[in-house]
Structures are given as C-alpha cells and as structure tokens.
Amino acid sequence: MSEQQTTILGGGIEIDLGALVRNWQALDKVSGKALTAAVVKGDAYGTGIKTVGRTLYHAGARFFFVATPDEGVLLRKAVPGAFIFVLDGLVPRTAADYAAHNLMPVLASMSQLTEWLDFCLNRGEATPAALHFDTGFNRVGFRMQEADLVKRELDQSGFQPQMIMSHLACADQPTHEMTRKQNGLFQGILNRFPDTPASLANSAGLMASKDYHYHMVRPGIAVYGGKAINGRPNPMAPVFSMQVPILQIKEARIGETVGYGAAYRLRRDSRLAIMALGYADGYFRALSGIGGQQGGRVAVNGTVVPVLGRVSMDMTAIDITDVPGLVQPGDLVEIVGPNIAIDDIGDAARTIGYEILTTLNGRFPRRYVNVPEGIEVD
C-alpha cells in the first residue's frame, strides 16, 4: 500500500476488480455480435480511471469513452493501445492536442465538424472522429434537420466518421415510449450514412433489447455494479464498498436532540454512534434523518441502522440501540457493502446511484482487491 493510500483513521473504499471484470464480461456476452466498449468518464465513475482502464483492457475491452480530453490523456497513459472517444466533443482550437494523444472527439455541432475537417485538410490526413446526433435528448448533438448538411460536408471532404452515435434519454424505464421514438429517429439518420458503424445503447439500452445494440454498445453504470433499469432486480456484481470508523459512542435520553438545528428529537432512550463521515466526503446532507423524514441507512455488525439528525461536514450520528453485541470506538461502519447498495443510498438521498458512486470519495483511501495478475494499480 502506498503512502497516499494509508490512513491513521481507519476504514476506506474498496474496489473489487474481479467483480468489475465479471460485470464487463457479462455485458459483453449479452451484447452478442456488437462490440462492447467501456465508459470510464468521471474517473471511471469514481473507481480510478487508470487502474480500471488497464483492468478492462486486460479483460478484452478495446474501445473506451471519456467525457473530457484531459480524461482521455490520462487514460491514454494507462492503455496505450486503446481506442478512446471523447464525449464532450472538440474543444475549440485544440484539434492538434486530440491528434497528439490519438483521441477521437465525438463531434456534435457544425462548428466542431468544420474545425475538425479543416484540421484534417491542413494536416493532410483524415484523423478519426465520431458524430453525435441528438434524437430528442436536447443535450449535445447535431439536430436532426442538420443530417443532410452533415452528409454534404462529409461527401465534399471525403471524410469517413468512425461512428454515428446518439444517446437514450429514458432507457432506464423499459416501457417508455421515448426509447422507441429515439431508436426510430436514429435509424433514419443511419439511412443517410449506411456504411458507418453505429452506437446507441448505454447500460440500460444494452440490457433492455438487442434492437438497440447496433455495432457497439457503451455500458457505464452496470460495469461498476450500479442498477441500470428501474423496477428490475440488479444482476450486476457490486464493485464499490466503503467503511468508516466510529469516533465515539454515547447514551442519550428520550427528548434530547441530535445534530445541527436540533432537527431530530429522540423518541426513546438511545445509544448513538458518531461516525467519521460527512458531506465533505460526499455523504450528502440530503441523507440527514430529521423530523419525520427517514434519512440514510448504514450497517453496523450486519445490522442496518438509521442516520439521526443532520449530516455535518465531518461527522454523522447513527442509532445503534438495536445492534446486538459490543460496539466500540474504532469499529467500522458499512456505508456501502453487502447490506447497503449504492442505489439504496441514491434512493434515500432522492437522487441516483450514479451521483453517489462518483461523489462518495472524500478523504478516505481507495484500495483494490482481486486484482488480475499483471495489473498495475494506482
């Protein structure tokens, strides 16, 4: 363990690389003939882009998607042989930097396309890039009505894009009409580019139907063990776990209050544990247990217990009254693990598991377990 990974306090984050590999391989099997990429933006959803990139490349992934060119540069150092797409597109006046690191921008506007084509012309080489069409998401992407103009520009330049892409807005809701609508619009786009590979499916689209697979699928959250489709059991193996230590245990009487604002009043004599975790570590203040509102839940010695009072910057109170056996300062509290899933925390915070996974890092060290042979960890 490196100096950066050690902690006097105890606890920390554990990333199971064996589970990560099994998840990607399972998704690769479901994708059938389609190529299975890996989305590693947001520091590989908070799990470490360099180590995860190496691990997934070792497992067979060759195509990777990052959000920013800086993420792409970092990933390129870890996996020199990978094909790397930058989802944010082309940052103005930086085309040469993309080419220098062999990064493929996902072009999403006429200005980006024009700048990239001019760069290729001046360079005397058709440097690879992909195109993103907006099929109703209203995020980045060429408008549908720009398809003919894009086709004309490509025909005039002789540039052949590596891929035509779009992104599903509602694939996590399997019966949502929007997904079928977007798929139909995407097929209309592809009719104009019949010889270009296509990609539409994220994790949810991959798992929902082979109709969305096309030439390449782009799983993200499912690779990291998160739930991709609402209303269905999550078949993915958990990758991320976290434990933090108890700082102090105290007895409190019925009627006493807990935390900032005296926002929670005890309804019984209680045994409280103060754990070393707060919103500075990414444990959202929205997980506070105040008034009649249930907040976050954690596990102590395998027993699930509630957060009491407001989550503060560095500390949070939990109710261990009903935990059997001895609990003492220094014992570890399960924040994410066998009893508490990332998506459980997301539900309690009225958000999604994605946000929890990419935020819950804070000041605790990250350790890797079940590391495949030959993989260097950072």
Automatic annotation (TrEMBL):
Residue numbers bearing the N6-(pyridoxal phosphate)lysine modification: 41
SMART domains in alphabetical order: Ala_racemase_C
Keyword Cytoplasm found: no
Transmembrane stretches, start-end: none
Keywords associated with the record: Isomerase, Pyridoxal phosphate
Superkingdom field: Bacteria
Reactions performed catalytically: L-alanine = D-alanine
Positions of substrate binding: 139, 313
Gene3D superfamilies the UniProt entry points to: Alanine racemase, Lyase, Ornithine Decarboxylase, Chain A, domain 1
Cofactor requirements of the protein: pyridoxal 5'-phosphate
GO cellular component, one term: cytosol
GO MF annotations, alphabetized: alanine racemase activity; pyridoxal phosphate binding
Enzyme class: isomerase
Entries under NCBIfam families matching the protein: alr
Family that this chain belongs to: Belongs to the alanine racemase family.
Protein name as catalogued: Alanine racemase
